[in-house]
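Marked as duplicate of an earlier ticket. Keeping the data here for the record.
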Amino acid sequence: MSYKSDLQKRLKDTAYCAGYLSAAMEDSNEAFLVALRDVADAKAGMSELASVTQLNRESLYKLLSQYGNPRLTSLTSILAALGLRIKIEAAAEAPARVAATAAQRHKAQPASSIHPLPACK
């Protein structure tokens, strides 16, 4: 069995798709879009996905390429059609990155005096 056919078989399972897409997202935006195209091909096929999402099939191919830049509405529509959704998680290092970015913008103010944003409730 080839890698591609084995992957197509595994991607029939929605839980596997979620892990596959999460791993791709950690790699890069481009990897995520290509992985989403793999999931779409395995679960529905582009023609069926185009019909369900009411997006043009050719547009789907462009959106789900390494150079794609889908709108959030298109992305959530595609994910919903595949039985998936976006989940936002707190990143442990986010406050430090926010503080470092703010310090770079305001070089006169040292990073140690910038307080991280309050946590969302």
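See parent ticket for discussion. Helices lie at 3-10, 14-27, 29-43, 46-53, 57-63, 72-81, 94-105.
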